[in-house]
Amino acid sequence: MDAPPWRIHNPEGSLRIIVTKALPGRRWLECLARADCRIEICPGRTVLDTATIQQAIGRRCDGAIGQLTESWGAALFETLKAAGGTAYSNYAVGYNNVDLDAASRTGIPVGNTPGVLTEATAEMAVALTFAAARRLGEAERFMRAGRFSGWLPDLFLGTGLSGKTLGVIGAGRIGSAYACMMAVAHGMAVVYHDITPNPDLESAVAACDRFRACLHQSAVTCRRTESVEALLEIADCVSIHTVLDAATHHLIDGRRLALMKPDAILINTSRGAVVDEAALVDHCRRHPEFRAGLDVFENEPATAPGLAELDNVVIVPHIASATRWTRASMATLAALNVIGVLAGYPLWQGPDIRPFLENDPPRAIPSIVNAAALGWLNST
Ligand code: DGY
Asked: What is the pLDDT of residue 380?
């Protein structure tokens, strides 16, 4: 069956932009149309391969907005460049699907969408933490199967988290937001591992501690561990918030899983391949008291053999950022990345991305991840 035709918005626009999936909200489209863009949107829900995207780029294309499920490597950036394209934005904060060297070699800046996924992703990490700790997946399946025959003292006993130790790997925006949610509301002591110390997180938890003291609640603390190993050994719950790159691929492997407490909880809302998924399946099989909550998978959409059958694992389909506001805001930022590059605006230097979500966005490019490689940072 032939693929349905791409939808065209603002056909009279003089700059041609391709968008490989329909995006939530309207503002991104309005911004692009106002910037004199003709927007061509792929209507389908299947992942586009490189050849299909090359065909969509065609002979003339000024910019593109792509998905984290696509492989934006040399082939696509060279095709885009040959078509006169000068702007690309990923519709994601993560960009492990993009070959930044290849993009930089063609001189094409790569945009991403930071700052608008923080709370949504941290909230999903919280949701998975409690779903894993309190066995929500298992209990719901039990209920739906009509197996609930009355209250019992030992039905689905789980783990309480208040007063326990939370380990956060990667204390950037999302990791810090999650740590604060768990410290202030759930009284967890925080240990974190990151390449650099995060004094802001430490001060925020200290402020949480003062707040909790006013309510006569137990104290909370926050400190950095020198190694991932030290964190894994002491944490009752570990949540991963790193980027995926060569250094973090299989950061949590069989050896490190074995360092964790046998009844610990592992949460991953970052990228699947940070965890060796086959090793995790093996570990969960051998330690029924161990629990995991996963939003991301090593070979999405597939899951490792045996994972989906494990009762001690809660799995959801990469939806951590899936709130209407976040997904629409990501679309706005991706559009403004492309518009800003095409208009020759400077790179945004502000601490916070929110002004771009207001009615009259700054005349700047929100976020370019290969700005340094393009020599943009020295020139500003
Ligand atoms: C991202 O943006 O990197 C998330 O994984 C999807 O929103």
From this structure: 45
| Residue spans in the chain of domains classed CATH 3.40.50.720 | 7-116+323-379, 118-315
Predicted confidence (pLDDT) per residue in 160-193, tens digit: 999 999 999 999 999 999 999 999 999 999 999 9
Q: How far apart are CA 331 and CA 240, in angstroms?
A: 25
The listed CATH number (3.40.605.10, 3.40.1280.10, 3.40.50.720, 3.30.1310.10) that belongs to domain 118-315: 3.40.50.720
User: Measured between alpha carbons, how far apart are the two ends of the chain, in Å?
Assistant: 51
Residue nearest to atom 6 of ligand 1 (CA): 92
318 in catalytic set: yes
Each residue of 278-316: pLDDT tens digit?
A: 999 999 999 999 999 999 999 999 999 999 999 999 999
DSSP string, 229-279: HHHHHH-SEEEE-PPPSTTTTTSB-HHHHTTS-TT-EEEE-S-GGGB-HHH
Q: Does ligand 1 lie within 6 Å of residue 68's CB atom?
A: yes
Q: What is the pTM of this model?
A: 0.96
pLDDT at position 1 over 70: no
Check if 70 is active-site: no
DSSP character at residue 66? E
Q: Is 314 in the pocket of ligand 1 (CB under 6 A)?
A: no
- 174 C-alpha vs ligand 1 centroid, how far in Å? 11
Selecting from 3.40.50.720, 1.10.10.60, 3.90.226.10, 3.40.50.300, what CATH number does the domain 7-116+323-379 have?
3.40.50.720
